[in-house]
What we know:
Substrate binds at residues 17, 49, 69, 79-80, 170, 203, 221-222, 231-232. Keywords: Amino-acid biosynthesis, Cytoplasm, Isomerase, Lysine biosynthesis. This is Diaminopimelate epimerase. This protein has an 18-stranded mixed sheet that branches. It has helices at 33-40, 79-91, 185-193, 231-243, 287-293; strands at 8-14, 17-23, 49-54, 63-69, 74-75, 102-107, 110-116, 121-125, 130-131, 164-167, 171-176, 203-211, 214-221, 225-227, 250-255, 258-264, 271-276, 278-284. The protein contains five helices and 18 strands. Residues 134-143 have low confidence and may be disordered.
Amino acid sequence: MNALANRRFLKMNGLGNQITVLDLRGTKHVVSEAEARAIASEPRARFDQLMVLHDAVTPGTDAFVRIYNTDGSEAGACGNGTRCVAWAMVADPQMGDAAKTRLALQTKAGLLPAVREGETLFTVDMGVPRLAWDQIPLAEPFEDTSRFELQIGPIDSPVLHTPCAVNMGNPHAVFFVEDPYAYNLEQIGPLLENHPIFPDRANIELAAVKAPDHIVLRVWERGAGITQACGSGACAALVAAVRRELSARKATVSLPGGDLAIEWRESDAHVLMTGPVEFEWEGWIDPALIERAA
Ligand SMILES: N[C@@H](CCC[C@H](N)C(=O)O)C(=O)O
């Protein structure tokens, strides 16, 4: 029998970013692209990201987490999803250990330590951002080679150009604009995500710096489309704004689903993301769904 059949899942969200948490610890099963897509098609399990827990592979860590987008592709990082996993691992009656306030979660992109700040409030250390193309850590002063020319003609949106490329464990292209809501993101999102300039596709951010400590952001997510919030996108937007000397190192990032507090810490160049999570319901994976995906 497939390990996914009748497996319990938690439906959650982080500021409206739809997250499903699935605990596969104790099994060797790795969710396939087709299985992820099948789970995403089930209304009660529907997700922007599926966060799958596996047994820890590194001593001192609490779990290894695989992250899937709606289209079945895998991502290296997911800020909102990591907060949801952290909540599940401390507060869920079946999965959680209420004694814990700190967790070390490992993903394909590295370690994401999370700290419980309140009942449903978590801070995740999203690590050191890297230049998208050559993977140089940004802990030291750098030459900003992340600017590149990209001009996408208007469909019925103002022209976008010169994004800032930031890798937060996943690739982001941040475009600074006057008003992110003036763009038809549904139309331009897929064109930009799949633009040949992005070798691994990209998450697309439209950001407006309203004040040195306030950024308004909309995101088209790679493999998922428009979402209500994107944690790594909010981090990328702040890093890009600091690099362009548009904002302070600490700011509130306002997304359609709500606000995240983001800090690009000066001492070690780590990016910290603080925000809430919401538990919605639990469910069990229909074996027929998984059979159809096989
Ligand atoms: N929603 C996430 C980011 C999800 C990953 C992304 N779609 C990708 O493929 O890189 C977040 O909160 O960070």
